[in-house]
Description:
Layout: H1 4-23, E1 31-35, E2 39-41, E3 45-53, H2 55-60, E4 66-73, E5 76-84, E6 89-94, E7 99-103, E8 106-109, E9 121-123, H3 129-133, H4 136-143, E10 149-151, H5 156-164, E11 168-177, H6 178-190, E12 194-196, E13 213-219, H7 224-231
Parallel strand pairs: 1-3, 9-10, 9-11
Antiparallel strand pairs: 1-2, 3-4, 4-5, 5-6, 6-7, 7-8, 11-13, 12-13
Helix pairs in contact: 5-6
Amino acid sequence: MVTKADHESQKVIHAFILNALSDLGINQDEVGFIGEEDLRSTGKHMFIIDPLDGTSNYATGTEEFGVLIVYYFEHKLQSAVMYFPMKGLMYTSELGKGVYLEKNGAIEKIEIKKIPLHNSFLLSSMSYDDEIKAGIPQKILALKPLFRAVRMYGCIGLELVYILEGIAGAIIGFGCSVWDIAPGMLMLREVGYEMYDFEGNLLELDLSKPKNTYPFFTCHPRHLERIMKYVSK
Length: 233
């Protein structure tokens, strides 16, 4: 689903980044973009943009939507921002410097809460036919006894935030694009979590193929073996 807001948001973000980098003396031909709404260009400085994560939520009138941006340079995710305007929450991260939350004018560093799986949520989605065909419902049912409950918010950025906040213990997803998960990937790594493919390997993003989609799950490495027993089935 695509709305006018998706396109307008991407235009504003694209123009803002180009202007800001120009002020820093960086030429536009050095800047590349991968954006959800058919924004494709290459450059030394790469920005990956999801201008409206949770489009269906936005169109329906719920608060679970946001803007996700990550900066990629020298083959590494360098910095990221995830902003949820209706909730007044902005998460930022820079490689090696942790994750910060700005809320009500105050900024605090995120300290991950170590909670047992049985006191946390499992987050997932069954919004698309591909998720059903891939057996996501069966994986959810198999994993459910390990968790307090299963929740589906329809906004992968927000779900990744719930990992950071200690609300969720794991996420299992299918068909996510690089703009859905790259910002959260950096933030998760900053607090000791990882994203994995369904074979238990560290998830690798291929920016040369921006249309790729990624089956993945995320959890703390200490829970990897336990969760893999069910994800790999």
